[in-house]
Amino acid sequence: MLVLGMMSGTSLDGVDAALIETDGRAITRFGRSEYRAYSGNEAAALHAALGRWPGEEGAAAAAELSVAAHAALAGRFPEAEVIGYHGQTLAHDPHGRGTHQAGSGAALARATGRRVVWDFRSEDVRRGGEGAPLAPFFHHACAAWAVSAGHLPAAPVALLNLGGVGNLTWTDPRIQTPEAPGACLAFDTGPANAPLNDLMRARRGTTRDEGGALALAGRADTAVVASALAHPFFDRQPPKSLDRDAFAAVDVAHLPDADAAASLVAIAAGAVARGLQFAPQMPTQVLVCGGGRHNGAMMAALGEALPCAVVPVEAAGLDGDMLEAQAFGWLAARVLAGLPTSGPETTGVPGPCCGGRISSPD
Ligand SMILES: Nc1ncnc2c1ncn2[C@@H]1O[C@H](COP(=O)(O)OP(=O)(O)OP(=O)(O)O)[C@@H](O)[C@H]1O
Ligand SMILES: CC(=O)N[C@H]1[C@@H]2OC[C@@H](O2)[C@@H](O)[C@@H]1O[C@H](C)C(=O)O
């Protein structure tokens, strides 16, 4: 089936939408994609609602805004039979209050006249999993696709998503299904772009460090980096997940702008290196997707910190800006096929877990 996957990540910059043709197992074809940036007012409303749970101030407005933005974008894809709708994560506390993605799939189904698969994380959390990351089974499908297309050798590889938070999937495409033991090991690596974006907003009034120019002009403060990487999160065995602001306490207030940016980049790269130590074997390469791969300082720091090649995921014929949107399209097809969306090695859920809810327009 032809599915439209839609994702608005923790960076709160906008919505990605991408078509994918799949039965929830193999990827038959990648289709076209579009991005819709949030307006300043929309981003401000979403920021104001961060950390809020259903019923709390700002959450309902964020949910309505999310549905409206996604419906507008979905209107540009009339050919999609089904929509995979992630919603906007406002809060994530899997072993406490749960996980909260604002935006109702039922409302989106009514607004678009199409079937919507949504609420992908709750069931995993309810069953004791981390509820994240959910892209790993899709990363396995991508690796298998890239091997069959001749873009990758048939060997273990890692996919690293550098969004607001980073997440990494080690995967062996020689194993047939993603839920099979040994096919995937996945976890959030640590903070990626979110602290850098927050720094740029506070100090420069911009949304991001374009190309990593500011970080490239600075020097990482070794004491700040070491103290951030001393966080007990990095010693925890994967799977493990993070809330967007888990590292809000990293203190770079005393550093000049460029050194502060360089330090946050070094922390993000160091976090990936710490995480990769848990991989069952060193991957042939780390394929980087997500906005962070456009940050030259981030890519350079990763190249230094990791013991294997680090390349943008385009090297394997994939689209690094749309991988997460595609993931939620593929996962939607998987939910409709009744196949698991997470497992013990991706979210720590005790057994294979079929998450997601299905809403019809009528
Ligand atoms: N040209 C660029 N230069 C520097 N940084 C960039 C560039 N383009 C994107 N980014 C960074 O990538 C971020 C967006 O990444 P992405 O869209 O992958 O995140 P997300 O999907 O919102 O987050 P997550 O994956 O955590 O849910 C931006 O907020 C910015 O920090
Ligand atoms: C709770 C939540 O929304 N987590 C996001 C976030 O952004 C990156 C990282 O943290 C990952 O855990 C996840 O998103 C991706 C798409 C995932 O679930 O694989």
Automatic annotation (TrEMBL):
InterPro entries: Anhydro_N_Ac-Mur_kinase, ATPase_NBD
GO biological process, one term: amino sugar metabolic process
Pfam short name (any one): AnmK
Catalytic activity: 1,6-anhydro-N-acetyl-beta-muramate + ATP + H2O = N-acetyl-D-muramate 6-phosphate + ADP + H(+)
Chain residue ranges for the region called Disordered: 342-362
Gene3D superfamilies, A to Z: 3.30.420.40
Residue sites binding ATP per the record: 9-16
Gene Ontology terms, MF aspect: ATP binding; kinase activity; phosphotransferase activity, alcohol group as acceptor
Pathway the protein acts in: Amino-sugar metabolism; 1,6-anhydro-N-acetylmuramate degradation; Cell wall biogenesis; peptidoglycan recycling
Gene name per UniProt: anmK
Enzyme class: transferase
Key words, A-Z: ATP-binding, Carbohydrate metabolism, Kinase, Nucleotide-binding, Transferase
Role description: Catalyzes the specific phosphorylation of 1,6-anhydro-N-acetylmuramic acid (anhMurNAc) with the simultaneous cleavage of the 1,6-anhydro ring, generating MurNAc-6-P. Is required for the utilization of anhMurNAc either imported from the medium or derived from its own cell wall murein, and thus plays a role in cell wall recycling.
The EC number(s) this enzyme carries: 2.7.1.170
Family: Belongs to the anhydro-N-acetylmuramic acid kinase family.
Protein name per the record: Anhydro-N-acetylmuramic acid kinase
